[in-house]
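Q: What does the predicted 3D structure of Shikimate dehydrogenase (NADP(+)) look like?
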Amino acid sequence: MISGKTKVVGLIGDPVKHSVSPSMQNAAFRKLGLDYVYVPFNVEKDSLQSALSGLKALKVRGVNVTIPHKSSVMDHLDEIEEPAKKIGAVNTIKREGQLLKGFNTDGIGAQSALKEKIDELKDKNIVILGAGGAARAISFTLAEKGANLTISNRTTSKAEELVREIKKKVGGKVKEIPQDRKRLKEELEDSNILINSTSVGMHPDKDETILTAKEMHSDLTVMDIVYNPPKTHLLKEAEKAGAKTISGLGMLVHQGATSFKIWTGRKAPVQTMKKSAKKVLEGK
Ligand SMILES: NC(=O)c1ccc[n+]([C@@H]2O[C@H](COP(=O)([O-])OP(=O)(O)OC[C@H]3O[C@@H](n4cnc5c(N)ncnc54)[C@H](OP(=O)(O)O)[C@@H]3O)[C@@H](O)[C@H]2O)c1
């Protein structure tokens, strides 16, 4: 029950009404018996600064940050953790007194989802589709882990820029290839992991996929970060090719679990969060 002692966390973004996070985070608080509540706040672009002042005034413990504020919010924070600085985006804020600290849990969320099926990421050959916000978080995190990355984006210049930044800030083996089925098939022959971090295949365009079974093989692990629907067209094609699959629910839950730990200091009940997220998505 909410009382005068209840700690408030939440989400700022625009829109927020379809977010799975309120259900997932509140289920986790209930499971551990923590006196917290997670509330979505619809914050328009022009209101970001005043919303952040409001977090301090209202003593909100912390928030997740989503579209369109993930980059612009960085100009208004007092401290930003190193991975978020490199990635250039913040998806979690923790208030400590009058200070707002920024974190990025997307990359670590993807890494934890991969680790459920793969022991070691170092020296793995990984093909990443996309060069948007999520792809940036995932690429920087996996580069830090010593994976060899090949990035392929519809807009080539964005992938080239991401490769340049990773080389400069992290180093390691990272290259760009065009988003062309034939070229991707060749690259995948020597790869261990494929990650779709584009929005292709997301509801309502559920029949879309960048690759089909013909381009994949049974030694691949394929992760799609699109979580609505949980089993995307790409994952169905990956199954046809005999590949192992990881759905976007994994990253969704693990990025949320990392935010939960940042706010509460407690290890999140990941299975409870997964069950709750699944239930919401199945109802959509
Ligand atoms: N599971 C999770 O926890 C999680 C977390 C974050 C995001 N996501 C999901 O990840 C997806 C991407 O999010 P984001 O924040 O990175 O978005 P974003 O910054 O807008 O980037 C979108 C990416 O998708 C590509 N793309 C869009 N339409 C395409 C098409 N028709 N063909 C080929 N590529 C296309 C874009 O390529 P161009 O650069 O060429 O436009 C870009 O690389 C969304 O579906 C989001 O819901 C999931």
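A (community wiki): The structure tokens above were generated from the sequence. Residues 107-246 form a domain with the Rossmann fold fold (CATH 3.40.50.720). Residues 81 and 177 are 30 Å apart (CA to CA).
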